[in-house]
Specification:
heterodimer; A: 113 residues; mainly beta; 4-stranded antiparallel β-sheet; B: mainly beta; 6-stranded mixed β-sheet; 5-stranded antiparallel β-sheet; 11 strands; 0% helix; 60% strand; globular
């Protein structure tokens, strides 16, 4: 199916564990992004990528790692999960970099206990 | 202070009303302006984007940008219960990364 898919949709993990959130897009968009959305903060950019093997930090990168070995995949790893990383995570992609908008995935709801 | 400010609401209106959703921004470099709609437990969905000042219409939705006052508006005519969602404005320019407002919750009651 064409589009942008995130997996898993829901995840519960324990403090200190490593967890990876997956993002896959089928359009071959150059740009991909990871956001977290929290009440009172709105969407905050974690990391972004302008092309395969090119990644850059956003507003809140601490505690997260990304990679982009293939254009269509952009996984986000929490190296050692903390309760403050409980959030809803959205992946997005764009051909134009975001100037005229993104397409977002459906999100991953992560709970760290 | 965030570069894009948006009243979180909720804004509650009766079905059929004209809805006005607004944002202000502070960065004069912003040239592109976007509106997203987000239903509960879903990802944001791009509704419309505009470039520079002026109006853009798409069905019941009209986006308006006034760069002189740094004001962004989204008007919804003949609002429906299915329009109940959170609406996020965003702006970009200079950098291609948009800055998002925190969203306004809209409730349209039958």
């Amino acid at each position: 199916d064409a589009g942008i898919t995130q997996s898993p949709r829901y995840k519960i993990t324990e403090t200190g564990r490593q967890v990876t959130l997956m993002c896959h897009q089928t359009w071959s968009h150059s740009y991909m992004f990871w956001y977290r959305q929290d009440l009172g903060h709105g969407l905050r950019l974690i990391y972004y990528s302008a092309a395969a093997d090119i990644t850059d930090k956003g507003e809140v990168p601490d505690g997260y790692v990304v990679s982009r070995s293939k254009t269509e995949n952009f996984p986000l790893t929490l190296e050692s999960a903390t309760r403050s990383q409980t959030s809803v995570y959205f992946c997005a992609s764009s051909e134009t970099g975001g100037l005229v908008g993104y397409t977002f995935g459906s999100g991953t709801r992560l709970t760290v206990v | 202070q965030k570069e894009v400010e948006q009243d979180p609401g909720p804004l509650s209106v009766p079905e059929g009303a004209i809805v006005s959703l607004n944002c202000t921004y502070s960065n004069s470099a912003f040239q592109y302006f976007m509106w997203y709609r987000q239903y509960s437990r879903k990802g944001p969905e791009l509704l419309m984007y505009t470039y520079s000042s002026g109006n853009k219409e798409d069905g019941r939705f009209t986006a308006q940008v006034d760069k002189s006052s740094k004001y962004i508006s989204l008007f919804i005519r003949d609002s429906q219960p299915s329009d109940s969602a959170t609406y996020l404005c965003a702006a970009s320019g200079g950098s291609y990364i948009p800055t998002f407002g925190r969203g306004t919750s809209l409730i349209v009651h039958p």
